[in-house]
Specification:
Elements lengths: L5 E7 L3 E8 L2 E8 L5 H16 L8 E6 L1 H8 L5 E6 L5 H4 L24 E4 L2 E2 L5 E3 L10 H6 L4 E5 L8 H13 L5 E3 H4 L5 H32 L5 E4 L5 E3 H6 L7 H16 L4 E7 L4 E7 L2 E2 L1 E2 L2 E3 L11 E3 L3 E2 L1 E4 L5 E5 L5 E7 L18 H7 L17 H16 L3 H26 L8 E5 L3 H12 L3 E4 L6 H8 L3 E11 L5 H23 L5 E10 L6 E4 L9 H17 L8 E11 L22 E7 L4 E9 L8 E3 L2 E4 L4 E4 L3 E5 L5 E5 L2
Parallel strand pairs: 1-4, 4-11, 5-6, 5-9, 9-10, 13-23, 23-24, 30-32
Antiparallel strand pairs: 1-2, 2-3, 7-8, 11-12, 13-14, 14-15, 14-20, 16-19, 17-18, 21-22, 24-35, 25-28, 26-27, 26-28, 29-30, 31-34, 32-33, 34-35
Length: 693
């Protein structure tokens, strides 16, 4: 991508919509409140504001990149389309039977995630295909028209088709869709053989149902946004961020909207990955805290950890198996409902609880003076002096500290016999511990250490809380990048155009069929190329191939990179060595003389990553920076209020050291430097905060 192009990126969050405009490497950013009921209107407000700030005319913009939480929120809040599922006769309940296990063994009243499609909307057709794609029972075409009346009776808005073993043979699914389209030409239909052509029926059906559930809403929104952008004068290509860390075309996003789940957090992971490489950091903990949620992501060797599965809407926080499984390429991270706008309350055991519910953009925290009466983390930060009520959001949104105190006292303090300060500290401390614990669990599940990592903190609220969380995790170094408050949007500007195709095709290495695998990989590459060809033209593309392998008899696979070439019988040894290396890295051993099998193959095509947006510090100085003033702030290290020097970030020169306690302010966020921390601006303009003895 030409670095001289003008690129615009927008990320819709639950509380704020973040905007970043890249003008030949110069970044102009802004934040506006998310308009939840009409998200396209909020996007256009952000576009208009940032274009005005940059003095840029609409026709000058050459690329628009968009990420959104709309699909995620629709799944969590169950506000998607009325969806029907068509399954193989005798298998309509697979999506509800799930794994037939208990993710919380000792809870007698366990709550299970309810399927997106209720039983009365799960219908069947007579057909059967085996795991090798062989037709055992031909499709009874007369069983499909019998569903027409049900679709009309229940006013179905979207249909998911998930027939047994359709990943091995999709002809029956295609025929069912053809018959439905003939009668209902405008009915959105999602095929499991297109959405998730992989083994494991429950995950495949769950993912297909989720795609169908959000498709009408996302298609309408994306088309409306495209129209509004054109009316504004933005006729440039429109790309959408995916959960896997790449951007894709508008048409692909409309067809596969489930791939947009976690698109915003993926942008933050891309930003942290670029920054890790720029700073020469091998082991990083990316920490993103916005208004609604906080996200934790591990980055090794400049690359975020990737996964093929994700759970949305977990009934039990941090409990694997308590959510709806979505099988898509995704940046692996943990997300919890702890953001600046997360509501604080007293639980049934008389303890302070924070989240997962949020005040959102409206009414927002009590201190916004927009009708909110319940305390949030932001209200607690105001009471503790971390946020200057008069200069918040560059002075565009003056805060009411008295309203924050009243909300905290009424809903938390009075129940625990605490004053506003003690209750506010309790709220912040619980929020910080929740985030630290989420990071611990995430790292333990993947056999990773945290104490030897550098934290990269971004999002509007993260710089306020990063130091305390680092203390809890025994992390000694923190980086706050420039434009940290809109980190995900900045990450969009750095992401490659990419698309991944996945297919299940079982192969034993002891009887490897090179010809069949080569033909499959070629077909997959052609499919990926067809999706992004219109967007990338004749540009060079990077191809990545992955095999999901395991020892015969095991239940889960290990992802293994494989050569980009026509495979021959001699390459079986290459695949064996690659698998054993990956397996040993995970489990510190291999299993001798055990046969190895491949269940699934993945082919990804992507452009080279965009030129990194770098904002250099204005000058270098070893002089002690001059404070802009002082403020009383509550320091958890000392357990009371201390006098903190206040610095303006844009005034800090590279090299000058700021000793805590201190606050470093900027238009869209504030960095809190507690006692026993010191900070300085590095040559790239990042704040580098270090814990000292």
């Amino acid at each position: 991508m030409d670095e001289k192009q003008i690129k615009l990126a927008i990320d819709i969050g639950g509380t704020f919509t973040d905007v970043a405009l890249d003008v030949a490497g110069r970044l102009i950013t802004t934040k506006i409140a998310t308009t939840a009921n009409a998200p396209a209107e909020g996007v256009m407000q952000g576009v208009s504001k940032v274009m005005s700030l940059g003095g840029i005319e609409a026709p000058s913009v050459s690329l628009f990149i968009h990420g959104t939480t709309l699909a995620t929120n629709a799944l969590i809040e169950r506000k998607g389309a009325k969806t029907a599922l068509i399954a193989t006769q005798g298998h309509r309940d697979s999506v509800e039977m799930a794994y037939e296990n208990r993710f919380e063994q000792y809870d007698l009243n366990i709550d299970r995630p309810q399927p997106l499609v209720p039983r009365y909307l799960r219908w069947t057709v007579k057909e059967r295909v085996d795991a090798h794609g062989k037709v055992l029972i031909p499709l009874d075409s007369e069983s499909v028209p019998s569903l027409f009346a049900l679709i009309e009776k229940h006013q179905v808005e979207s249909v998911a088709i998930g027939l047994l073993h359709a990943y091995a043979n999709h002809t029956h699914e295609m025929e069912v869709a053809r018959i439905l389209k003939r009668r209902f030409p405008h009915l959105p239909i999602s095929l499991s053989s297109e959405i998730c052509p992989e083994i494991r029926e429950y995950e495949r059906q769950s993912t297909t149902c989720a795609n169908a559930y959000v498709q009408p809403m996302m298609a309408n929104y994306l088309r409306e946004l495209e129209q509004k952008l054109k009316q504004y004068g933005l006729n440039c290509p429109l790309f959408v961020m995916t959960s896997g860390g790449g951007i894709t075309t508008l048409q692909a996003a409309i067809k596969f909207p489930i791939r947009l789940v976690e698109s915003g957090p993926a942008g933050g992971a891309i930003l942290a990955s670029h920054l890790a490489r720029s700073c020469g950091l091998d082991r990083v903990l990316a920490y993103d805290m916005g208004g609604t949620t906080a996200k934790i992501c591990l980055i090794d060797d400049g690359k975020p950890l990737l996964s093929r599965t994700f759970e949305v809407g977990r009934v039990y926080q941090h409990r694997k198996g308590s959510g709806l499984p979505i099988k898509i390429p995704v940046v692996e991270m943990v997300e919890i409902g702890t953001g600046g706008g997360s509501l604080a309350s007293i639980d049934r055991l008389g303890r302070i609880a924070v989240g997962p519910h949020s005040a959102g953009a409206y009414p927002g925290p009590a201190c916004y003076d927009k009708g909110g009466i319940h305390p949030t983390v932001t209200d607690a930060d105001v009471v503790l002096g971390r946020i200057d009520a008069n200069t918040f959001a560059g002075g565009s949104l003056p805060l009411k500290e008295d309203l924050a105190r009243r909300a905290i006292c009424d809903h938390v303090g009075v129940n625990l016999d605490m004053d506003a300060t003690a209750a506010a500290f309790g709220i912040v401390e619980i929020a910080d511990e929740d985030m630290a614990n989420a990071a611990r669990v995430h790292a333990i599940e993947r056999g990773k250490e945290l104490s030897d990592r550098t934290m990269i903190a971004f999002g509007g609220a993260a710089p306020l809380h990063a130091a305390r969380i680092a203390q809890k995790l025994n992390i000694k170094e923190i980086i706050i990048p420039r434009n940290a408050s809109v980190g995900s949007a900045v990450g969009f500007l750095q992401a490659p155009i990419a698309f991944e195709v996945v297919r299940s095709c079982h192969q034993l290495l002891s009887s490897f069929d090179c010809e069949a695998v080569n033909e499959l990989l070629k077909t997959m590459r052609d499919e990926a190329d067809s999706v992004i060809a219109e967007a990338v033209g004749d540009r060079d593309l990077t191809e990545l191939r992955t095999a999901y392998m395991r020892y015969v008899g095991q239940g889960h696979e290990v992802d293994v990179p494989i050569p980009i070439c026509k495979l021959t019988p001699q390459d079986v040894d290459v695949l064996t060595t690659a698998f054993e290396t990956a397996y040993e890295n995970l489990f510190a051993r291999t299993i001798p003389n055990a046969d190895i099998e491949v269940l699934t193959w993945a082919v990804s095509l992507q452009t080279k990553e965009f030129i990194e947006v770098v904002s250099l510090a204005n000058s270098r100085s070893s002089k002690k920076p001059k404070a802009d003033g002082q403020r009383s702030v509550f320091d958890p290290t000392d357990g009371g209020f201390v006098v903190a020097s206040v610095y303006v970030r844009d005034d800090l020169e590279a090299g000058g050291v700021v000793q805590g306690p201190a606050l470093i302010t900027e238009a869209q966020t504030t960095t809190f430097v507690p006692q026993f921390f010191r900070a300085h601006v590095d040559d790239l303009g990042n704040i580098l905060m270090t814990r000292v003895q």
